[in-house]
Amino acid sequence: MTKTHEQFLSEIKLKNDKVEIIGTYTGATNYIKAKCKRCGHEWDAKAYSLLSGRACPKCRTIRGIENNNGKTKRKTHGEFIKELNIIDDSIIVESKYISHHDLVKCLCKRCGNKWEAKAYSLLQGHGCPRCAKSGTSFMEQFIRLSFIKALAEKDVISRDRKTIGMELDILIPKLKIAIEPGNWYLHSKSLNRDSEKRKLCKNKDIKLITIYDNFPRNEKIPFEDNCFVFDDDYNKADHIKIQELVLRLFKISNIKKRFSDDDWKKIEKQAYLNAKAKTNDEFINEMRKINPAIHIIGNYTNANRRILVKCNKCGFEWNALPSSLLSGDGCRKCGTKKAHEKLIKKDEDVIKEISLKNPNVEIIGKYTGRHNSIKARCKICGYTWEPIVSSLLRGSSHKNAKVMHKNI
Q1: What local confidence, expressed as pLDDT, does residue 248 receive?
Q2: Taking burial as the number of CB atoms within 10 A of a residue's CB, which of 58, 186, 351, 401 is the most buried?
Q3: Closest-CA residue to 246 (of 218, 225, 232, 267)
């Protein structure tokens, strides 16, 4: 027979007097809200675990640290801050560290975001949740934009998931090269995954170049070939070293392109903008300044996740890379039309050119393009036909012109 709530409370008083029940009992295997009478901590626990004497998880952690015969010791606030700065110095802790499982108030130096996190999660490398949504780092963007500058936008694919079935940060198909830049502390926990990517790339005849920054000087380099490690943080302000890295990557890729100081500054500025976490509203406001003709339909998540947009001029909709839009790219349909219009000569220019190359032909139709037909009349015999414009510019006449003109 199932216990009533009152029966459960009576049993708890006998078996676990350090716990106050503040939820409603619904069954032995269901969760119930409890409160610690010592420290006031509240948590959800299985009802049967409380009846077996399960104590407050917060008190248990603290007692474990204090009573484990000196094997470990409880960190001081200063020790926690020192350890965190080694792992991620972009986080400012605004509240006092109490224990591993307590929340601390944090401020991100990069984007100004404020949030609360468990102390242990920060030491595991979990940083600013807002910056994490950007899905990309300054180093990755700097390398990507450098290759786009040296090659072309279409030649450099960001966050490709199709080629090997796993995500590749930067892929350059025509060079058969992929580049994976990242922070060593985070990647050291997923080396098996990085190793698997290398195997899959090798099977596809793709050279995978792995880059780790914040790499300890006494640590063994994980991969023998095409693995660069640096003890500096390549996402920080002094970017001379990352320029040198790009030139090394160019050399491996047989790219002889060199940039001016102005080129490097533009790449650096755009890389920072691409890597910086933005809200959807911030992205929309930025796009209004850059290109008000583009209407944002989808929700912005980061610079490398495609988003649905619409051209206010022609109504064309497409999925665009936010990083490309921020770089000034517009509607490709309007762009194609504009490029086509540039190639189309004015009517009077074409007529003048035809009259010089083919003086016996009179244009009586409208010019629409060099490779389109146009209505014309022969000045010698009066014959009308619709030849291709380019043929008239080569001096061609109408069919049977020689025979017809003999009798005139």
Answers
A1: 94
A2: 58
A3: 267
DSSP 4: P
3-state helix, strand, coil in the chain (%, to 5): 40, 20, 40
Q: How far is CA 303 from CA 136, 250, 287, in A?
A: 8, 24, 12
d(C-alpha 314, C-alpha 297), whole Å: 15
Nearest C-alpha neighbor of 119 from the set 142, 91, 144, 147:
91
State the CB neighbour count (10 A cutoff) for residue 189: 11
CA 23, 28, 30: angle at the middle one, nearest 5? 55
CB 191 within 8 A of CB 220: no
Say if residues 363 and 198 touch (Cβ distance below 8 Å).
no
CA atoms within 13 A on the CB side of 159: 12
Tens of pLDDT along 316-346? 999 988 878 877 788 988 877 776 666 555 6
pTM, to two decimals: 0.48
Q: In 303-346, where does DSSP find H-type helix?
A: 322-326, 332-343
Q: Which helix (H) or strand (E) holds 245?
A: helix 240-252
pLDDT tens digit sequence for 212-234: 988 998 889 999 899 999 988 78
Q: Name residue 269's amino acid.
A: K
pLDDT tens-digit readout, 178-190: 999 988 877 887 7
- The helix (H) or strand (E) run that includes residue 85 is helix 77-87
| Mean pLDDT computed over every residue of the chain | 84
